[in-house]
Amino acid sequence: MNYQMLRTKLNQPESATLYVPRKDIEKKLSDNSQAGLILVSSFAGSGKTTIISEWIRRGHFNYLWYSLDARDNDLQLFFIYLLEGIKDLDQMIAGDLLQLWESFDSIGYDAFMRAFITNLHRIDKEFVLVLDDYHIIENEKIDTFIQLLIEYLPVKMKVVMITREDPAFPLSKYRVSNKILELRIADLRFTKQEAATFLANQLGQDIDEEHAALLTKRTEGWIAGLQLAVLSMQGVQDINCFIKEFSGRHTYVMDYLIEEVLEKQSQETKEFLLKTSILEYFSFNLCDSLLDQGSGYSSRMIAYLQQNNLFLIPLDQDRKWYRYHHLFRELLRQRLPQYLQGMGNITVEELHCRAGDWFNQEGLSMEAIHHYLAGQLYDQAAALIECKWAEMDGQSQSSTWLAMSRLLPESIIENRPVLALGYGWALIDTGDLQGSQKWLARAQKLYDFYANNPEKLPVSDINQFKLLPATIAAGYAYIAAATADIDGIFRHTHDALAKAPPDQYQLRGIIAMLSGFAHWTSGDLLAAEKIIVDMVHTVGNKVNDLSINSFYLALGELYIQMGRLKDAKTLLKKTISQVDGVSKVPILWASLYLGLANIAYLEGSNQEVYELLKKSREYGQNYALMDWEYKYYLLFAKLYASEGLFDMALDSICESKKAYFVNPIPDYCSLEEMELLIQIRKGPGMLSSEDQLMVDCFETKSIPYLAEFSAAVYTEKILAENADPPMLKKAGIICNALTNSAKKQKRMGPCINYLVLASKVKEAKGQFGERRLLLDEALVLAKDQDYHRPFLEHLSPDEGLNYVKKDVLHLKKEMANQRLIEPLTIRELEVLVLIVSGLSNQEISNRLFLALSTVKGYNQNIYAKLDVKRRTEAVAKAHELGII
User: Does pLDDT of 445 surpass 90?
Assistant: First the structure.
């Protein structure tokens, strides 16, 4: 994983040397060991982090400690750090999660979250995930993930959330279900006895009970306040008198104490504290560079700060990296501008510049960018951001890159060609197609200018500048594909391929695939096949495994739509074998097995379809492409409709619509068209005005490829309504047009379907001899590819079975379901199968990613429909009726 990160963010903070045991809190933690979520919520400086760090240390727990900052609101950066932390718990599972993360854009966030949590269940050791400073997180998607994790928390895992404010989570629900243990200010405040112990430890002398109680009362047991008070007492002869005066006259405790602490320090220490407060994390060398001091200066200063307990927190065991307590740093940063103004020799911006230069020299460009932006050094920041574009785009971090770029003045982006290009592509990746076009045009204009004026070229990534023409054209091709502009796809892909260097295999592969989709959409599937096959042979092993296997998946779908079932089956099985050999997180498997299920459906083997769908589901519920789920339910709809289970089929269409995802592969059959077909086969109805408007379109000699399925549906509607001769004539014209188009393109599968459909038109006209000829022709074509489905769908059961033996096992089960007064829905059947398998409600909840209350609701529905009262009765009744 080639990402820049500060590994110190994953280190457990070291406890203070003079830690005061907190027996009440420790007892509360041990007495509530069943709680999966520990919420430590209180204001700054109340000892939250120290309490949890010491609890983990004393309990010898395995842990993943994640210290959050504002940049962790970036979704992908958040998961990068989680993955890095999981390496310390289980290297193998971390490797699997890395492959999953690399497929982030392909599978979608919901599927990614489910798969991530499923893998956490595989970690075979107890561990604690600590999210420190969670109040910084504002990204709702991160909140969603953490809530889902809490809902389906692994048995061996706990989540500790350290925060200054409560998250917008259903805490009351967690309380009712005993999922949460809460530590709040009332728990965290020092008692009089704890405060007395703390003061004695820190001051090296006992404080009388009366004055210790007085200071505890004045600070309300606030730990940071007590520590600041201790620092303020340094050099004070009469400590009891100081406490008495402090307790009576200081309203703003924090402001007063920080001023007291700083006044007690030497000018050298004060300057070190204030200047280094711009750093979230720091090391000796970084501070030396920031302060323009010789080597060794900062190590001496940091040793002094540690010795005097000046809110310094080591971040690693080697004590190379440190940070200040967050509250202390905030107070220092508030005073820094005024302090520097008084000195007059350096500004805050110049300090950020020094920090940025150091991080840049160390190869930590993300940290460098942060400081350059904070110091308003926009040219330096822009140069680094530009160089990060290609890398971050290739690693699915477009949103992170875009967020950084938006911190630059627009005038900077407008004058840098590569930066403008990256900005345009990042907008494409995040769905803003319209906004992207402005920046692609700007990038082209800048390229044209600087190509003729190279001496003025404001470019840091010269390689990307050379690729600019091809990348711009590819951007326009992508936009054309997303907006179904076929002419635009042809034009821009041709342009992009002409401009892309021969050795840019990944780029050329994507461009070629877009070109293939354009031919596919327009109906020229033979041309699409040639382009995709040639592209696969050209790129070979020069692109990553996911890309090449995704190309094979698309080619398999093309073969299915052409009716070349044997070629499709061979290719998909080979690809499954390849994926099995290279990927531990095979996100393509669900779609590959779904492709095989589609083939089995077209072959007429319903039993095999069910088996393959089951296997596809096993993979799909963990890892799948974003279009898998809707296609999965769409095939179920076809399957149920073929068995006469029309209500189940319509239920499946509803599930498919919920999961619909726009797919770059041309959709031959839309959900709406399939729904209409099911309704037609369920029972005849009247032609609507919208249906009537379709007639003119389908009377033409050439029907557009993506309108063919709709035309066939319309033909079935004519037949179902026993139409008059003029309408049957229209149906015949449609069938002739469909058949001729399919033959011309050598799409034998659709051709078989149209021939059988045409035979039904002939039957309706009473032309039985011609009907027989059409069926014989279809049979000859079907025999080669085992393409039996049209015979089973369009002919009577007896006649259809003359062509293929129909599988009736699943049909009997579903017919038993249909005999119920109110049949079980597809979801209820899924739950019933798991009940019969012996899974508990919680296990069903985890398996299906449903709320426990939802599972219980399904149980009640099942019991009511089966007329039973408990699980055992439901299992027996399901077997008795033959539903299971």
Answer: yes
Model confidence at 239, pLDDT cuts 50, 70, 90, reads confident
Residue 415, pLDDT > 80, answer: yes
Distances (CA, A) of 577 to 107, 343, 582: 20, 69, 9
Give the pLDDT score at 246.
62
Query: Mind spelling out the 3-state secondary structure of 747-769?
Result: CHHHHHHHHHHHHHHHHHHCCHH
For residue 169, report the phi and psi dihedrals to the nearest 5 degrees.
-110, 160
Long-range contacts made by residues 307-314, C-beta under 8 angstroms, separation at least 24? 308/231, 308/234, 309/16, 309/202, 309/227, 309/230, 309/231, 310/231, 310/261, 310/273, 311/227, 313/13, 313/14, 314/13, 314/14
Which pLDDT does position 106 carry in this prediction? 66
Residue 806 — very low, low, confident or very high, per pLDDT cuts 50/70/90?
A: very low
Q: Which residue matches tokens 């040397």? A: 17
pLDDT of residue 559: 96
Q: Give Cα 75 distance to the centre of its chain.
A: 8
CA distance 465 to 456: 14
For β-strands 127-132 and 157-163, DSSP reports them as parallel
**Which pLDDT value is given to residue 820?**
85
Vertex 778: Cα angle to 774 and 782 (nearest 5) = 170
CA-based nearest residue to 283, from 6, 500, 11, 624:
6
Distance CA 121, CA 97 (A): 12
- Provide the 3-class DSSP secondary structure of residue 338: helix
- Say which amino acid occupies 236: V
258 neighbors 242 (Cβ within 8 angstroms): no
